[in-house]
Amino acid sequence: MRNTFSEALYEEATKNEDIYIVVSDISPAGSMAKFTTQYPDRFINVGVAEQTMIGIAAGLALKGCQPFAYTIATFSLYRPFEMVRDDLCYQNLPVTVVGMGAGVIYSTLGGTHHTQEDIAVAGAIPNMQIIAPCDPLECTDATRWCAKQKNGPVYLRIGKAGEPVLTKDAEPWQFGKIRYLRRGSDVCILTYGVITKMAADVADRLQAQGKSVSLVSVHTMKPLDREGIIGALQRHKQVIVIEEHAPQGGLAAQTKQIAWDIKATSRLDTFTLQDAFIHNYGSYEDLLAAHGLSTDRIMAAAG
Amino acid sequence: MEGSRATRANSFDVAVARARCKKYRRRILDMSQHVSALHIGGAYSCTEIVDSIYNEFMRPGNAGGKSPDTFLMSKGHGCMIQYVILEDHGLLSKADLDAYCTPEGRLGTHPDYGNPGIEASTGALGHGLSMVVGMALAERGRGTDGIIYTVLSDGEVQEGSTWEATLMATSLKLTNIVAFIDNNDFQSLGRTSVTHPSFYPLGAKFEAFGWEVVECDGHDARSIYEAVTGRSGTKPLMVVAKTTKGKGVSYMENVPMWHYRSPNKDEYAQAIKELETQG
Predict the structure, then answer these.
(1) At A180, phi and psi to the nearest 5?
(2) Average pLDDT for runs of 10 along chain B of length 279
(3) Alpha helices, DSSP H only, in chain B?
(4) Pick the residue with more confidence: A184 or B4?
(5) N or C: at which end does chain A have fewer Cβ atoms within 10 angstroms?
(6) A52 near B CB under 8 A
(7) Domains of chain A from N-terminus onward
(8) Which one of B119, B162, B164 makes the best mutation probe of the A interface by having the most chain A beta carbons within 10 Å?
(9) Helix intervals (H) in A63-124
(10) Which residues in chain B are contacts of A52 at CB distance < 8 A?
(11) Does B134 contact A61 at a Cβ distance shorter than 8 Å?
């Protein structure tokens, strides 16, 4: 996803000289290297200094530019949190804060590099918008949208590398609207981000059992498509939420809230990361499993 | 001289500057009688600095339009002096200032982006200089010659984020930044020289980061003027301005309580009397 993000941003930057990228000590790989070479004045590497990364992006936006701030998710959102809140959200500036490698993708690097609660943290700030694409194609659509929008700040939560394409024949991506990757009538799986691959595997297994399954990318986590979620709750017998995020403040919690509000009668099962730092140093899948997230466990509990 | 492009042409008059500052301090005192708190001490310590920025350094816009230069009040709690100058310039109204800190008004004790003449929301310290760097970058990227002026408090320079921005301004070779440190030697409740003796010498630290540094008397308009007009224009400029918190009213000077408090009626009367008898 980081390469498709870079490619999409580079393409947008060729069309709009107000696009800047302010990065914090991250190697300019792939198209980011092209950006660096071709537009050196618009590629700013602040080094290991995330607070000024956000502040500089804010200053650029205050002068009408369209900046992106980019580094590993924990450092783009948590380290400079007050700058994100005050400089970007309070002033409502069209800056995209890119959280790369969000969730537990940096599996062997430990809790300092895991971004388990970013949706809750970013989502609690007024004016913040959140997009978490599920595959490289969604990442391209989201990046293009971020490069043009003037609503206010965006937290763009992306993966790292190797995510499979899941949306090739899906309906068009639209900011603020849930996106059906498959349509069925028995079970609806709501998910977002890199873990959508696991959700697709669960969908395959459920379909193999003879169930009619919807698979939905809830790529825009704020503003959440409340009407879309209500529709999913009303049109399916069972809704399953799978997310790579803490139980608080993410899709599971918000879907439960909506279900309560509308007195939904569908079965609702939620699968999230734990509210815990897990000291496991295996693969990405090992980390998810340590948190209780695997296709087998989800099937055992909700299949 | 390269530095002269940062100023209005030959308009400097120290007596006029002094008269303006007296008027501005008086206006702040009047406003103090409507609210319990207004950061008067910090506004008085940077009165001459902010006056010089607005009335001597920032160039007027064409046909009465916006100045090509920008002022960002990094020490947001000093915004009272900014408000009264913006009123003097006609960007804020008397009604705006009369409604300060009321539900009917739009002005609070920190600058709020979106209000006329306010270029950024500040209040949390250590945010301003990074935004200044971003603004200066945007000016350079567009090939415009706008200069970004800012005032930092000395307490604010304790923030790590200020040093991140200090490093970036010179790493990016920005030359269109003129920053002041309102060096009144006070944080909200104590002397910086006591709590942080290693803070000094302050100017040398910025020099070590590659800035052009000049020291001046922050209450002497001529000293401020010469500090800025003498700049080389080849580096960002940091003016370390020696100031006195609460300057102009004897009982406020260097007394921490006046960081925030409003004077009562008797104190107000004494303050007015003192201001009126000053040259």
Answers:
(1) -80, 120
(2) 46 92 97 90 97 96 91 97 97 96 95 97 98 98 97 96 98 98 88 90 97 98 97 98 96 90 94 90
(3) 14-32, 40-45, 47-52, 79-88, 94-98, 128-142, 160-171, 192-195, 202-208, 221-229, 265-277
(4) A184
(5) C
(6) yes
(7) 2-157 (3.40.50.970), 179-302 (3.40.50.920)
(8) B164
(9) 73, 81-82, 118-123
(10) 130, 133, 161, 164-165, 167-168
(11) yes
Residues in chain A: 303
Tell me if A245 sits within 8 A of A207, measured CB to CB: no
Model confidence pLDDT, tens digit, residues A192-237 = 999 999 999 999 999 999 999 999 999 999 999 999 999 999 999 9
Distance from CA of A9 to the nearest CA of B (A): 18
Answer yes or no: is pLDDT of A239 > 70: yes
Preceding omega of B256 cis (within 30 degrees of 0): no
DSSP A145-210: HHHH--SS-EEEE---S-PPP--TTSPPP-TTS-EEEE--SSEEEEE-STTHHHHHHHHHHHHHTT
Q: What is the pLDDT of residue B198?
A: 92
Taking a C-beta distance cutoff of 8 angstroms, is the pair A30, A100 a contact?
Answer: no
Q: What is the pLDDT of residue A31?
A: 81
Query: Domains in chain B and their CATH numbers?
Result: 2-277 (3.40.50.970)
